[in-house]
């Protein structure tokens, strides 16, 4: 687990210090592998997609196993850093939020806001407080917390599996290559998002207004009547709005700042950083607990 924490910290530092490296996070090669061959039936395309994805995940696990404990674990650490870095993002969330906040005019702010949905949804993002908060949290789950959760649980195998499923389910670049299989991958993406989404929600409650978030969470499930153990992750958008609204209202701007798109987006960025720190602190405590025993 200590190696996992070190790899995460290295990736976070490199992402912040060397943002240009993000251009190497490119899965276009996967699209070429998945392109259907002339005369292939849809069933063959589904089998091909599953075989390619499974082969990549298995190969990643074999490489990590081969590198385990060699050269004092340095080779394994380097491999973990490379895989996590490639699976992070692919766009940097802080950079996309900063682009909206620092845009010189309204037109450019609206244009920059659309990048918050890159890799998450193809729908246009409305330029209002609710739309920006929801898009930011959805992006944070996909780009940051989802891959972080699966990396912490399963290592490089988990990170790669999460990113592959996300790409196949939600990236328009793969729509033609996988055809009707996309709905199956969307369900798989929801399954893999379920645990990190709930951990993100509880972390948000810790760093923001606990009562407002828990109340909004409970009201959402009561209104929809499906219970907590479903693949309906719409609660995250609801509690994100409740938490940010409460956080902004408690700040210097008071109630007057609630509903201001830029004020709420800026607070969203701060809150998401707090959540990231909580996750890192929990992983660090687990590492220290392992050393202590």
Structural notes for this entry:
The chain has helices spanning 2-17, 28-34, 42-67, 74-87, 93-101, 106-113, 129-154, 156-170, 175-178, 182-207, 210-224, 235-249, 261-292. The chain is mainly α and 293 residues long. Helix 1 crosses helix 4 (74-87) and helix 7 runs antiparallel to helix 8 (156-170). The protein has one domain. The radius of gyration is 20 Å and the shape is globular.
**Describe the biggest sheet?**
none
Quick one: how many beta strands?
Answer: 0
Separation, N- and C-terminal Cα atoms: 13 Å
Share of helical residues: over 70%
Shape: globular
What is the count of structural domains? 1
Strand content: under 5%
Structural class: mainly alpha
Write the layout of secondary structure elements.
Blueprint (H helix, E strand, L loop, with lengths): L1 H16 L10 H7 L7 H26 L6 H14 L5 H9 L4 H8 L15 H26 L1 H15 L4 H4 L3 H26 L2 H15 L10 H15 L11 H32 L1
InterPro entries: Beta-lactamase_Reg
GO cellular component, one term: plasma membrane
Keywords: Membrane, Transmembrane, Transmembrane helix
């Amino acid at each position: 687990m200590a190696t996992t924490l070190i790899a995460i910290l290295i990736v976070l530092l490199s992402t912040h210090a060397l943002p240009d490296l993000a251009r190497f996070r490119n899965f276009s090669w996967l699209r070429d592998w998945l392109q259907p061959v002339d005369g292939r039936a849809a069933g063959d395309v589904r089998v091909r997609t599953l075989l390619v994805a499974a082969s990549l995940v298995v190969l990643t696990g074999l490489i990590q196993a081969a590198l385990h404990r060699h050269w004092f674990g340095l080779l394994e650490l380097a491999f973990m850093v490379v895989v996590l870095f490639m699976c992070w993002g692919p766009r940097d969330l802080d950079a996309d939020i900063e682009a909206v906040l620092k845009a010189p005019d309204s037109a450019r702010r609206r244009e920059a806001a659309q990048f918050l949905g890159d890799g998450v949804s193809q729908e246009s993002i409305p330029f209002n407080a609710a739309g920006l908060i929801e898009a930011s949290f959805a992006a944070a789950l996909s780009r940051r917390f989802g891959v972080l959760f699966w990396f912490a649980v399963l290592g490089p195998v988990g990170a790669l599996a999460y990113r592959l499923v996300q790409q196949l389910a939600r990236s328009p670049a793969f729509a033609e290559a996988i055809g009707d299989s996309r709905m199956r991958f969307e369900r798989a993406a929801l399954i893999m998002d379920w645990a990190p989404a709930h951990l993100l929600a509880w972390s948000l409650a810790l760093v923001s207004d606990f009562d407002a978030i828990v109340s909004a969470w409970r009201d959402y499930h009561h209104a929809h009547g499906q219970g907590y153990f479903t693949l309906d992750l719409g609660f995250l958008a609801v509690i994100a709005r409740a938490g940010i609204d409460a956080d902004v209202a408690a700040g210097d701007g008071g109630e007057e700042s609630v509903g201001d798109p830029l004020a709420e987006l800026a607070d969203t960025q701060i809150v998401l950083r707090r959540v990231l720190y909580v996750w890192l602190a929990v992983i660090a405590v687990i590492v220290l607990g392992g050393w202590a025993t």
